[in-house]
């Protein structure tokens, strides 16, 4: 009896399972069977969510890169419950929250963005050289050449006397030009007109030029030009001006004249003959003065007057190379040609001319 009672449960278990697969004779409780499955499922789900989160961070667009350190930190420090919540890592609008302001150390673009963009417009925009339109043009336009506008000293030599026009004579000449319908144009107007036929020139155009940059040009010629509404072109020696040599215009004088509509152009650094010079010498004496004028007056001069009127092919070549558009000579004449922009002729106004001679020369009578 004792034997049967001890082994009866075992036989009953085998009888109950006889219709199916045999199970353990001492089966575990239902809760113990499900615990490994539940734990494994939680671990598997956590792993999947972690991979998804890492993928979102890795493939976040460049504009959201500054949030990656924060997302990664949140991922690896969150509790198991938070990591199982899909909204914590899968909501794309979380990184765009306006109140989520990244610190300076989390913004890599802070040290890469330049303070000035490469497309910033330069202050000084040079006037473009007019592209020739292929048509041949020439004009009879007098370009008058002056030097001193003052009474020469008593001990003046023949050269100084020849180059000196008294303020009275100069005013008389300007008054006649004004009364006769002449209108001043600039050398820039001439270059444009020869190259492209624009701007339209007045019926009686004339160009007034002054060489060397003497102080009497400011003291005497400048106010007379303003009186008659004329403009002039003043060719200066920049090294002489820089030294403030007595008898020559200062930068303050030249600046005032430039602001009043006068053209300040290049005669050289010094009054040196440019013929027979090598390229390096010419670069120094042609490019340097243009840069000096630009630094002091704010624009790049494009016109040149050869010192003493001397030049050769090398001078013309280097002048064109460094940006000049035209040059005036001391060669006598009034015919201005498109294919001779660096050999423009002028009329030298001499100190001993009276008004009749002046009129005859300007009108082509002499």
Strands, total number: 10
Distance between the termini: 163 Å
Which structural class do you get from the secondary structure elements? alpha/beta
Count of structural domains = 2
Helicity range of the residues? 40-55%
Strand content: 5-15%
The CATH architecture of the largest domain would be Alpha-Beta Barrel
The biggest beta sheet reads:
8 strands, parallel
Gyration radius, rounded: 46 Å
Average pLDDT rating: 79
**What's the CATH class label of the largest domain?**
Alpha Beta
State the CATH topology of the largest domain: TIM Barrel
Description:
The protein is α/β, with parallel strands linked by helices. The protein has two domains: 31-106, no CATH class; 138-362, Alpha-Beta Barrel (TIM Barrel), CATH 3.20.20.370. Helix content is 42%, strand content 13%. The protein contains 14 helices and ten strands. The strands form two sheets. Strands 2, 3, 4, 5, 6, 7, 8 and 10 form an eight-stranded parallel beta sheet that branches. A two-stranded antiparallel ribbon has the order 1-9. Helix 8 (187-196) links the parallel strand 3 and strand 4. The longest helix is centred in the first third of the chain and has 29 residues, at 30-58. The radius of gyration is 46 Å and the shape is elongated. Mean pLDDT is 79; it is low at 1-31 and 56-123.
